[in-house]
Amino acid sequence: MIRFESASKTYPDGTVAVDALDLVAPSGQITVLVGPSGCGKTTSLRMINRMIDATGGRILLDDQDVAKVEPAQLRRGIGYVIQHAGLFPHRTIIDNIASVPLMLGTSKKEARAGAMDLLDRVGLDQKFARRYPAQLSGGQQQRVGVARALAADPPVMLMDEPFSAVDPVVREQLQDEFLRLQSDLGKTIVFVTHDIDEAIKLGDQVAVLRVGGHLAQMATPAELLSNPVDDFVANFVGRDRGYRALGFEAVGQLPLEPEPTVSLESSFAEASKVATDGWVLVLDAGRHPQGWLAIADGPSAGSDSIDRGRLRRGGTVASVDGTYRAVLDAALSSPTGRGVVVGHDGTFAGTLNATQVVALIESRAGAAS
Amino acid sequence: MATGGAGEMIGQVFSWLTDSAHWRDTPLDTGITTQLLAHIKFSLIAVGIAGAIALPLGLFIGHTRRATFLVAGANALRSLPSVGLLVLLTVMIAPHFHGRTDVGFVIPTEIVLVLLAIPPILSNTYAGVDNVSPAVTDAARGMGMRGRQILFGVELPCSLPLIFSGIRSATLQVIATATIASFVPLGGLGRFIYDGLQQQDYPQMIGGGVLVAALALTADMLLALIQRLVVSRGISGRFSKSGGAAADAVDAAITRAEVAPV
Amino acid sequence: MSLLHAVFATADSPSSASSSPWHFFGYFLDHRSQDLSWLWTHTWLSVVPVIVGLLIALPLGWLSRRYGWLYPPMVSITGLLYTIPSIALFVLVPPLLGLSSLDPLQVPIALTVYSVALLVRVVADGLASVPEEVNQAATAIGYGRARRLFAVELPVAVPVIAAGLRVATVSNVSMVAIAGTIGMSNLGQLFQIGKDLSTPTAYYPPIVLGIVLCVLLALVLDALIILATRLMTPWRRAVPAK
């Protein structure tokens, strides 16, 4: 656990970067510090491993005041990942990852073996081991950066905008894999970002800081979206927050409607027969939804079978224990207006239309008030 | 002058260089071998002393970002005319040494050579450490490396291309200027240039020029070879594929330092 | 203060034979016309090769930027030329070009070779320093290749090229003085004279005068290039908007 006790940072010229910050980052969880530039989020992060020394208050790492630990010693026990990875250009990937264990006295052989395992863990092929950082893409370098921070198996990780410098597609990939990794490792993580969507996606709890280093709100992502404490947080969290908040609440019991379905192997004539409003849902042999068939599109050319190429596959599919947002999205993205819901095994369970989902949302609001 | 004259001259220079008698010492004349060794000795001493001063100083200034005025100060030395400085120091120092020793000429020569060699080594070493990506040093500090470990484990290896380029340009300058040492007068390959001039023995004069140029090229190639062996491939960018960008970046960095304002 | 005092005291003193280093100003006054003529030769020997070198380096640098495969050989060859010591190049130029030994053109030709060697790379790197989006914007608004080069690329590359010109000019001043030791008439002659007059006891004035004039010349030429660069790049002095 990391605890800020009215920790402050004032520079000699009088600039206050962090102002009496009180904050707890619980063990085994991801705490995200988010805010506009100049809000002191990076300064706060760097005060934990004493890259910057606090000028007031104190920071406790598992009840030990970090100011009382020698900085280099302190840092060796804390993983540290930064925006541009900061890999050592003159060392191979494997030796980059092995840096901290080697410094801590692990034998070269052991350190390299551990580094090889980590390469796997962060989703990099072992063929990268002998390469140099300059031979890797930005996203790959960032994976190595994470592996290097994990190498000595520190209980605490500090991550400063680690995914900001890569393109959005790779960023999303890295975020997903990071969450998967964290579900295995259960590290205590403090994560800094300026991107509120990233904060909401990754954080177990999110601390919104305002310029001048004041904590505006500390809450779970869902709480932040539904109950921003003031205009600053509301503005920062941004538009669509009502809709995005629906992404954090499972619906529970879904009043699913039955839906006529046909299998891929069925004849077109059969499909036209069961179709209710000109549409029919097509499943594969394992009862997994494949897409909607419009009867108006006709059969495949020169036969009476279903033309797979003409199936409308655009709609999203929600799970029976999905969130309001997932179910609503399934309904809204379906060409028929009926959202497809599947069971835990991915087999078709039933449909639900937008009106029904909205009714669910409204009844939930009514129940809460 | 006709090109025939030039061809003839080149032939004469060639025969001067290939005449084994010119390579041996005689009671009257010092041969090429001895002068070549003397030239190498002066140059090695100067580059050695300059390196011993400028390398640690450059590393210190780059690492601590303190006393950067020293770099600018050393660069100001570059506008001093080397030959003028050499003559000045010689007439100041030489009279204090008597007898058959040439110490009175060696000391001023070495002072000038060291003064010439310090600015490129110092400014390139400083620029090398200063150019190390802040993300890299930040990561090094963040993982718990101490100042010394960062300097020798990260900053020094990363700045080697620039440091080598500094040492190489210092070496070239020293070899070139050691030639002028013969003007004051001291041994070395410059002897043939100035004696040839004096005696209007142009094949000897031009032959001396060829020897100096050959020595400079050889020294530079030798240093380039050492650089290849010492600098990590991750920095020099010499890997099988997709390494172009890194190599370009290093080249660009080197150019920047060479073009540093004098 | 004491230095200035010494300079003017000796300058005013009638004993023009003083061997004190501070007497260089008096020495200058005594040999004014000779010294000024050497200074003049020295100046044009330092400047003209850089200008000629730039005129040669511009197309070569542009070519090696335009055709990427030309860059490595161009840089290697010019780098090789730069390793040849100046005094060696001075004596090698006449036989290679069929000039007589001690031809007045040998020094400017050798210095031009150095300037080209340094500036080809500088021009190529200067053009490479122009941001790609700037080039694309120029093309997008309809600039042809030549117009883009002269109206956009070269102006933007001026700071890099100017830095190269400064290095070339200042090192030329020193190299011209070296040519003085093999009989060329320029400020380097002052060192020859000083050396010859220094037996048996040191005679400093011409030596110190030579150093002072060389340093002053280097500083003035350097300042002129800085000034010209500033005039040519007004946008670099603009204060960034907050």
What order do the helices and strands come in, and which of them pair?
The complex is a heterotrimer of chains A (about 375), B (about 260) and C (about 240).
Chain A: E1 2-10, E2 16-25, E3 30-34, H1 41-48, E4 56-61, E5 64-65, H2 71-76, E6 78-81, H3 93-97, H4 99-103, H5 108-121, H6 138-150, E7 156-160, H7 168-185, E8 188-193, H8 196-202, E9 205-210, E10 214-219, H9 221-226, H10 231-237, H11 241-245, E11 261-263, H12 268-274, E12 279-283, E13 289-294, E14 317-319, H13 324-333, E15 338-342, E16 348-353, H14 354-368
Parallel strand pairs in A: 3-8, 3-9, 6-7, 7-8, 11-12, 14-15
Antiparallel strand pairs in A: 1-2, 1-4, 4-5, 9-10, 12-13, 15-16
Helix pairs in contact in A: 5-6, 13-14
Chain B: H1 3-18, H2 20-23, H3 32-64, H4 69-76, H5 82-93, H6 103-131, H7 134-142, H8 147-180, H9 190-198, H10 202-230, H11 233-236, H12 244-258
Helix pairs in contact in B: 1-10, 3-6, 3-8, 4-6, 5-6, 6-8, 6-12, 7-8, 8-10, 8-12, 9-10
Chain C: H1 2-12, H2 24-30, H3 32-66, H4 71-83, H5 86-97, H6 106-128, H7 132-140, H8 145-180, H9 188-197, H10 205-232
Summarize the structure.
The complex is a heterotrimer of chains A (369), B (262) and C (242). With 262 residues, chain B is mostly helical.
List keywords for this structure.
heterotrimer; B: 262 residues; mainly alpha; MetI-like fold; 12 helices; elongated; disordered C terminus; C: 242 residues; 10 helices; 76% helix; disordered N terminus
Describe the structure.
The complex is a heterotrimer of chains A (369), B (262) and C (242). By secondary structure, chain A is α/β, with parallel strands linked by helices. Chain A has helices at residues 41-48, 71-76, 93-97, 99-103, 108-121, 138-150, 168-185, 196-202, 221-226, 231-237, 241-245, 268-274, 324-333, 354-368, and strands at 2-10, 16-25, 30-34, 56-61, 64-65, 78-81, 156-160, 188-193, 205-210, 214-219, 261-263, 279-283, 289-294, 317-319, 338-342, 348-353. The model of chain A has no long low-confidence stretch (mean pLDDT 89). Chain B is built from twelve helices and no strands. The longest helix of chain B is centred in the middle third of the chain and has 34 residues, at 147-180. The model of chain B is unreliable at 241-262 (pLDDT under 50). With 242 residues, chain C is mainly alpha-helical. Chain C has one domain (23-233): MetI-like (MetI-like fold, Orthogonal Bundle), CATH 1.10.3720. Chain C has ten helices and no strands. Chain C has helices spanning 2-12, 24-30, 32-66, 71-83, 86-97, 106-128, 132-140, 145-180, 188-197, 205-232. In chain C, helix 4 (71-83) runs antiparallel to helix 6 (106-128) and helix 5 (86-97) packs across helix 6. Chains in contact: A-B, B-C. At the B-C interface, helix 1, helix 5, helix 8, helix 9 and helix 10 of B face helix 4, helix 5, helix 6, helix 8 and helix 9 of C.
